[in-house]
Amino acid sequence: MKCPDCGSDDTRTMDSRRRDGGTYRRKVCRACDFRFSTRELHVEEVKLLRNPPPPPEPEIVEAEPEAPEPKAFLILRTIRGILDQWKGD
Ligand SMILES: [Zn+2]
Q1: Ligand 1 center from residue 34 Cα (angstroms)
Q2: Average pLDDT in the 55-71 region?
Q3: How far apart (Å, rounded) are the C-alpha atoms in residues 78 and 85?
Q4: How far is the CA of 10 from the centre of ligand 1 (A)?
Q5: How far is it, in rounded angstroms, from Cα 10 to Cα 49?
Q6: pTM (whole model) above 0.90
Q7: Are 24 and 37 in contact (CB under 8 A)?
Q8: What's the CA-to-centroid distance between 39 and ligand 1, angstroms?
Q9: CA 36 / ligand 1 centre spacing (Å)
Q10: Residue 26 burial class via C-beta count within 10 angstroms: exposed 0-12, middle 13-18, buried 19 and up
Q11: Alpha carbons 55 and 41: distance in angstroms, whole number
């Protein structure tokens, strides 16, 4: 592992711990004493990062057939139509 600060290969792992499905390492550069941390990912996770899965296909939802007008409403409208005709004349 190269030091991100000076590029030296002479780095030392101070501490490593597993967390969130990865391995975290605290490292220190022996050349410049720069401290940094790394996270090792599992192979599956790396694959996932390199080839993210395609977005899900949009779901095709079939339009529901329009609900037929309720009969009671139709009858009421017919009666109202007759009443309006009476009133009108
Ligand atoms: Zn360094």
Answers
A1: 5
A2: 72
A3: 11
A4: 8
A5: 29
A6: no
A7: yes
A8: 18
A9: 10
A10: middle
A11: 23
